[in-house]
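Weekly modeling sync, notes
Attendees: S.R. (lead), two postdocs, one rotation student

Agenda item 3: backlog of single-chain predictions. S.R. asked that every request posted to the team notebook include the full sequence so nobody has to chase files. The rotation student volunteered to paste the first one in as an example of the format we agreed on. Action items at the bottom.

Example entry:
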Amino acid sequence: MFLLLSGFAKITGNTVDGRNILLDVRVGGELVGEIGALNDGMRAATVTAASHVLTRSLTQAEFLGYLDEHPAVWREVARTFSIKMRLLTQYRLTANVRSVRIRLAQSLLGLADRCGESSPNGERLGLPLTHDEIAEMIGSSQPDVQRAFAYLRNKGAVQTAYRTQVITDRQVLQRIADMADTEPDSVRQRYIPPYGKGGDSGI
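Predicted structure, as returned to the notebook:
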């Protein structure tokens, strides 16, 4: 298993029809492979570095031995499990929400909490993600995510460029995520193009 000291990694898995999709991300300070180390289970996903990363590798014996010697670390590992379970529960609940823009807003806020970086325009996600990958994470299609991003840009909540997303108004984005924005999806919005040279094709 690995302790990710810095950088970002992508967690991907294969669907039953053979597609490889993005399931989640890992950021500095998080563990990778700890579930397999704890239950001797088969690896359920693939981890790929998405930036320059620095890691500390541990064998199963080293990891379990360290936990036995440091009960406080057991509590921290249990806390990270609870966070992952909460995120999974949230995903299952929001997956049944019809509005893609709500799911997108919630996902962007969650990513910003884990890997947000200050930028001149707002809070930039430090992990480069395409619109295709974001669509995979929230269980939607790329065209629907493109339309949802256009809506968020129109509201002034985000700016986008190639593999770049910036939260420009967190309060507005939070209101959309909380379903407090009652404007129906069917309302046609004024088109606000992505910023940056060449825009964002989402691929």
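Discussion: group reviewed the output briefly. Confidence is low (pLDDT under 50) at residues 187-191, 197-203.
Action items: rotation student to repeat for the remaining queue; S.R. to check formatting next week.
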